[in-house]
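Following up on my earlier thread - several people asked me to post the actual chain instead of describing it. Fair enough. Here it is, all 523 residues.
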Amino acid sequence: MSILTKKQGIGMAALLLAASTILSRLMGLVRDKVISWQFGAGSESDIYFAAFVVPDILNYLLAGGFLGITLMPLLARRFEENEADGWKFFSSVLTWMALAAIALTIIAMIFAAPLSRLVAPGLAEEKLLRLQFFMRITLPAQFFFLTGSCVTAILFLRKQFAVPALAPLIYNGCIIAFGVALPALGLVQGMTGYCVGVVAGAALGTLFLPLYMVHKGGLSFRPNLAHPLMKRFILLALPLMLGQTITALDEQFLRIFGSLAGDGSVSLLNYAKRVAMVPVALVGQAAALASYPFLVSLLAKNDRDGFAQVLGRAIRTGTGLILPLAVWMAVLAPSTFTFLFYGGRMAGDEIVRAVPLLQLLLCASPFWVLLELLTRGYYAQTDTITPAVSGTLLTLVFLPVYYFLAVPYGAAGIALTSVASLACYSLVLILIWLKREGTMVFAGVAGTALRSLLCVLPGTVLGFFIDGAIRRALGADSPILAAFLGLACAGLVLLLTYVPLCLRFCPELLERLKARLSRKKTA
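Reply from S.P.:
Thanks for posting it. Predicted structure:
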């Protein structure tokens, strides 16, 4: 049995998805490094990043990012009761999703002109024409994302995480390959190749490969539009379709309002956002994806204590690990951004503008991780209404804040508003959970997070001074080398200080490492 078809437990699932997340984020940074080198923070890159607003919103309108979440609990129960009918239900969902994706894509392509003015109100007319061109290329990718989400849900139910782990790697790989190769061959100009790569990566990574693996393990698909469970599925998915939450629209707000904050603001906010989301993906997204099928399984067995224990452990570990990562990255932000993006058309003054944006967006990291995990707790209980309604109401509250208060302060004001909105959303969901479910899930979270934060301070402070000394000595002549050496030394100091302190004062965060060290001592 190959790794692609093999079932994985929660530990191996988390490991696979964490490895995939790390590699995907690294590839994403490589992609953005190539873009920043070629185009800097200028109009072409602004237009490219703005081109994803409408496609992403279409994805949200069809609950694309949550299809697996809403579909898995229903599929799990149906397959358990009647496998043949489970496939009929799956076929019905996939048929409807394919038809809806095709219809909305065609409509969006027809109305690309007015939509471009809506999502990038700060762009000049000639730039809007370029934006419409990019939008029409990237829009078909949503068909592959949406239908692929349905297929991937089957793999998650089978506890086969290898192919879903490969999907983002293939996606980013295609973007880089097409973005570099097509202009080099003289087939396209500017960033058109990257747009083509988006469609190719979505088709190959998120639909064709998962579909092949599901078919290999047994697939029964017959297009149909009617099944008794469709009503239940729509009721679960409808709040996610209609509800445009803070988390769903955060990146889009950075692009929309960034277009009003001056040339290059969209690109700088995007680059900063990419870097800030690396620790979130590493700690939160992988854990959320890996734990969700197990949370669903526990509730299907009516094991609410087990459900609370698994979710609580994930939240304690997630918040305990994201804080030291975010603090260290914020303190080392100048070297981090210089190493990743300096060079080509990305000049020193743009780095100076981007660093505070990265530091601000890193402040949102703990809220992102908490939201990734806590919303999975709601969804596992088939409660999609609470996160959707509360998130949508907060979106309506923060829209005027973005426009009237954030935009006048430029990119920094937009980044700060993003952090505030995520903090408010986290607080609302926590308060609702405490009222309904009690405190069991959050037991020990604050203490673990505080101890972990204290453990990281010595290494971070020492690393800050070492990094500063290296940059002062070498930065004028070799900024990238100085940034690399500063980060390497600061990282080594962090490793040598944080790990021993963490093992001593909050060992639950490094249970696996502690177990391995214990086995080596007894060997």
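Residues 265-300 form the longest helix (36 residues). That should answer part of your original question.
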